[in-house]
Automatic annotation (TrEMBL):
InterPro entries: Amidase, Amidase_CS, Amidase_dom, AS_sf. GO terms for molecular function: catalytic activity. Gene3D superfamilies: Amidase signature (AS) domain. Pfam families: Amidase. Residues 36-465 form the Amidase domain. This is Amidase.
């Protein structure tokens, strides 16, 4: 009898290791309770978050109350959502009712949200139990999750490396087992890069798949700019593809606040087989490291093992799209630089300064004609990529030309910033074009995660997830992990 009790206690204590899918099934069938799952994750947060600073607001009492409500709903035979009772973390730059939306900016520390933003509302409707709010860089505009309000988030693999940004807190929390699923958003890699740097999966859906916010946090004078309207999306991060699929479908329900949202079926027509995959190593902007190319080779072989045809391709339009990001997005930031520096601090100010200097090196003085032509050209490139994907429905490419950056490399010097922007061509080019893409871990090299990126046709996230599951099935499990430092 004592052995059974001990086994039960051990099982409950280790629920933080379970996948979201297993937690949801266990709660629904009464094998476990939502309260047990939440307590296990809260204990894990207490254990590792002081080392990582991934979750900047822990919602202990609120989460326990929500868990008890979830358990009562199960007992009462009520209808249950796909994430019913599952602990989830949300990003501090998106409204959650009753909590501040700071975006890592001290001036916004009292910016209390009265209602849920659209993606948060959908997660709540799916039954998620919100357990914490995750860290970001100031204004969510760097690949390094550090700010003057909450401090710096660390990568559980290496304290000297970034966990990515801007959803770095979400990635670090998922990778270290604080939560099985976390919410993120992506304008220039803010879901995909943290997932890559932290050894987990993260998907940037098609623009319109997940309903978006009407505007950024803070003052109304920082309303959502044109590039944010046309390139920024919300999506999930998780430790496995099944959980990512579960979270993405949960986040994709209709919300009237987003005029771009489209109720497109999540499962499309089967692709003609054998499915062809284009393998793209670089576009002439930055040479990939050995580790990056090895990850591409491994993923290509895994797909071939499953019957995919993988062929090396060239796709220069992504180089042009990368260049366009440095025009269209940075021009939107130009007139906000002084205010962002004033409100967000020196780090974000220096980062934006370097952004703009590199943009000027490429584009010269920006004019209205250049800006207008940039959006015209964007449409042409989108059409060309869509045509390419008729022959190759999937594209296999890097996340970055190198592994996770050292902390604050983007503000070390203009030269290093320039090199980082080049290394991140796979992060920046895709938002310009609006196609879905996801990061998939493959291996550990030099003590850091290595992985690949998969891109697919618009609103065909299902095909990307299917291919990612093939890679995952032939890859060793990387997370959750204990922080690999004291």
């Amino acid at each position: 009898m004592m052995n059974k009790i001990a086994e039960s206690q051990k099982k409950t204590a280790e629920l933080w290791k379970w996948s979201a899918s297993d937690l949801a099934r266990g709660i629904r069938t009464k094998e476990i309770s939502s309260r047990e799952a939440v307590i296990s994750c809260l204990n894990r947060i207490e254990q590792v978050n002081p080392k990582l600073n991934a979750i900047v607001e822990v919602l202990t009492e609120e989460a326990l109350k929500a868990a008890d409500d979830a358990d009562r709903a199960v007992s009462n035979g009520q209808a249950l959502g796909p994430l019913h009772g599952v602990p989830v973390a949300t990003k501090i730059n998106t409204d959650q009712a009753g909590h501040v939306t700071t975006d890592g900016v001290p001036a916004f520390k009292n910016n209390m949200a009265k209602t849920d933003g659209a993606p948060i509302a959908n997660l709540r409707k799916a039954g998620a139990v919100f357990i914490g709010r995750t860290n970001v860089p100031a204004f969510s505009l760097r690949w390094f999750s550090s700010n003057n309000l909450y401090g710096k988030t660390l990568n559980p693999w290496d304290s000297g490396r970034t966990p990515g940004g801007s959803s770095g807190g979400s990635a670090s929390a998922v990778a270290s087992g604080m939560v099985p699923i976390a919410h993120g958003n992506d304008l220039g890699g803010s879901i995909r890069y943290p997932a890559y740097a932290s050894g987990i999966v993260g998907i940037r859906p098609t623009l319109g798949r997940v309903p978006n916010e009407s505007g950024p946090p803070g003052a109304s004078h920082l309303e959502r700019s044109l590039s944010f309207q046309t390139m920024s999306v919300h999506g999930p991060l998780a430790r496995n593809v099944a959980d990512l699929r579960l979270a993405l479908t949960s986040m994709s329900n209709d919300q009237p606040s987003d005029p771009f949202h489209s109720q497109v079926p999540f499962i499309g027509e089967p692709l003609e087989k054998p499915i062809k995959v284009g393998l793209l190593r670089d576009v002439g902007i930055a040479q990939s490291t050995v580790e990056v190319n090895q990850a591409l080779d491994k993923a290509a072989n895994y797909l071939r093992n499953a019957g995919y045809i993988v062929e090396e391709v060239e796709l220069p339009l992504l180089a042009e799209a990368h260049k366009l990001w440095l025009l269209l997005v940075l021009e939107d930031l130009r007139d906000k630089k002084s205010e962002m520096e004033k409100l967000g601090g020196d780090e974000i100010g220096l980062c934006i300064q370097y952004y703009l200097e590199v943009g000027k090196e490429i584009w010269g003085e920006t004019t209205l004609e250049k800006f207008k032509h940039g959006y015209t050209r964007r449409f042409t490139l989108m059409a060309k990529l869509q045509q390419f994907l008729q022959e190759y429905p999937l594209l296999l490419l890097p996340n970055s030309s190198e592994q996770a950056f050292k902390h604050n490399e983007d503000i070390e010097s203009l030269d290093r910033h320039r090199r980082l922007l080049a290394a991140q061509w796979p992060m920046l080019s895709i938002p310009v074009l609006g196609f879905p893409a996801m990061s998939v871990p493959v291996s550990i090299d030099n003590g850091l995660p290595s992985g690949v990126q998969l891109l697919g046709r618009r609103f065909r996230e299902d095909t990307i997830l299917d291919a990612a599951e093939v890679i995952e099935a032939q890859t060793d499990t990387l997370t959750p992990i204990d922080p690999l430092f004291n």
